[in-house]
Design brief:
The protein has 336 residues and is of the alpha/beta class. The protein has 17 helices and ten strands. It is 43% helix and 17% strand. The protein has a seven-stranded mixed β-sheet with strand order 6-5-4-7-8-10-9, sandwiched between helices. A three-stranded antiparallel β-sheet has the order 1-3-2. Helix 2 packs across helix 4, helix 3 packs across helix 4 and helix 6 crosses helix 11. The protein starts with 8 loop residues before the first helix and ends with a strand.
Length: 336
């Protein structure tokens, strides 16, 4: 699957240098919805291009590249078919990753990544210089971009929510508050795993308009609440921060934790769900995600000791880190 796996050092470096072309090809076919049109069976690039209103030869060449890494497969007659990897690009596939691909390969990440050298030299993201506003302000003010981010995050989460919720015992809590919980995908899985608990989905009003709580049949057990987590969050004995702290600098993350600490019921827990970077040189998706955070946001992925230090600054104590089958871990903290 990895063209560089048996390569010489020179070949390996060149392969890494042009790896961005795979991202470009993935973005193109995801945006066009090619995988959706292969659900009924193999088709030629010409047939797909005619239906999509695009050029056949460029589409063929993009699909041919992706077929070399197991995304689509080309048969002897030049027709392309779905592979397991291509299948998750279908819009309606269980755990579809189409929206996640469209988000991660969007110019809001792509263009700042091209300025990584400037970020390394200055310590600052080039996002504002490129787009005219910081990351979250840009997403909030541009109606064409915000939905890409929120759908992409939901796509990421849908593939991991049940697994993570099942890795930690939420049944001991009475009131679970998901801070910045988006459309509610994770809180839905938590409430299913803890049938006696009640939930609060807390986010901005424009995000909660697409909340899934009602569709999941949980309206009686879960309320929606709007606000600013830099100022105040609803009280509870379990306050969840899933993929929130990694968006922010250490000092800002500590401020968010302090707000959560004030809202925490006696004996309760702040439950952070984020990547925990392991030591050593082994590959880990969190190390890639860390650089993605660095180029577009003020945030970062953190080690266990870095979480411990942040918690202490917010008058919290790290109790344990629970690894999950997903890339994220559950980091549990109590009042210090």
């Amino acid at each position: 699957m990895d063209p560089a796996s048996a390569a010489s050092p020179h070949e390996h470096i060149i392969h890494l240098s042009w790896a961005y072309l795979y991202s470009a090809a993935l973005n193109a076919v995801a945006e066009l919805g090619v995988a959706d049109r292969l659900e009924a069976g193999p088709r030629s690039a010409a047939s797909l291009a005619d239906e999509l209103g695009v050029q056949a030869q460029p589409l063929y060449r993009a699909l041919r590249l992706l077929a070399t890494v197991g995304v689509f497969i080309e048969d002897e007659s030049g027709r392309f078919a779905l592979t397991p990897a291509a299948d998750v690009l279908r819009t309606n596939a269980p755990g579809s990753m189409r929206d996640a691909v469209l988000m991660v390969s969007h110019e809001t990440f792509w263009m700042p990544a091209g300025k990584l050298g400037s970020t390394v030299r200055t310590g600052e993201t080039q996002f504002t210089r490129i787009f005219g506003a910081p990351f979250f302000e840009h997403f909030a003010r541009d109606p064409s971009v915000g939905p890409i981010f929120h759908r992409g995050m939901a796509s990421f989460s849908d593939s991991e929510n049940a697994t993570i919720a099942g890795s930690y015992d939420f049944s001991r809590f009475q009131r679970v508050v998901d801070v910045g919980g988006g459309h509610g995908g994770f809180l839905i899985e938590v409430l299913r795993a803890a049938p006696s608990a009640r939930g609060v989905l807390f986010d901005a009003a424009h995000v909660l308009r697409d909340a899934r709580i009602g569709a999941a049949g949980l309206s009686e057990r879960c309320e929606l609440a709007t606000g600013d987590f830099f100022k105040e969050v609803p009280g509870g004995d379990c306050i969840i921060l899933k993929r929130i702290l990694h968006d922010w600098s250490d000092q800002t993350a500590i401020e968010i934790l302090r707000v959560c600490r004030r809202a925490l019921a006696e004996g309760g827990r702040v439950v952070v769900v984020d990547t925990v970077i392991p030591p050593g040189n082994e590959p880990h998706p969190g190390k890639l995600l860390d650089v993605l955070m660095m180029v577009s946001m003020p945030g970062r992925e953190r080690t266990e000791e870095e979480f411990r230090s942040m918690f202490a600054a917010a008058d919290l104590r790290l109790e344990r880190v629970v690894k999950t089958p997903a890339m994220l871990s559950v980091i549990e903290a109590s009042a210090a």
